[in-house]
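User: Please predict the structure of the protein below. I'd like the answer in structure-token form so I can feed it into my own downstream comparison script.

Assistant: Understood. Taking the following sequence of 256 residues as input:
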Amino acid sequence: MLLTVLGCSGSAPGPRTATSGYLLEADGFQLAIELGHGVLAELQAVRDPFELDALLFSHLHPDHCLDFTALTVLRRYHPSPSRDPREQRLPVYAPADAPERFVAAYSPNAADRATEDLTDVFEFRPLAEGTVHIGPFEITVATAAHPCTAFSFRIVHEGRSLVYTGDTGPSRTIEKLAKGADAVLAEASWTHAPDRPADLHLSGVEAGRLAQSAGTGQLLVTHVPPWTDSAAVLAEAAGEFEGSVRLVVPGEVLEI
């Protein structure tokens, strides 16, 4: 599997850094995971967006999905797409309320929202706990500890495994999901402190502990907000995890 980091800033874009967005490729299949602020611009710098084979969303907070509206405009109005988006509608795997949420974000007023339907260029497929196959990927979907409907993913291809935490607080669910993974792409939105809100985000310490207890091959730290000291978060994670740990950066390509 080839993982391209399109955006990795948490909660809001940072200087020249988009929010959550990743491209995962295998066997010629292109899966975009998240599409936050600025991610579509970064995607266009490396791939033709019309060549995407599927979209996968962990949850529907804006920093993970807001560029879906821009992608809608692109797919509806581009005068010469490389693939006809109406003949090859893009599968969108997301929480069940995604169609209504995306219509609300895309449409300018209530009257339009009452009649709008994005299924001319997208095919919505609601996520639930369990296993789903998207192209060559086998994906285990688990509920994350977050204030809205949110999921974490274990993605497997030819025996290699990548766990993407999405946004989550510590939980037995994510510990089980990450067990023995080749890589864990873990959000770590803040440094560790006893007064952090529960069931929201991981600290650097908690991300490191997750990787250590899971026995993962490597820890990839992401989703650090622009107001958080990323070096401090990375140091916390490295202090808890004996294996390879790194802070991902926009534009890098990693082989899993």
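That's the full token string. The chain has a mean pLDDT of 97.
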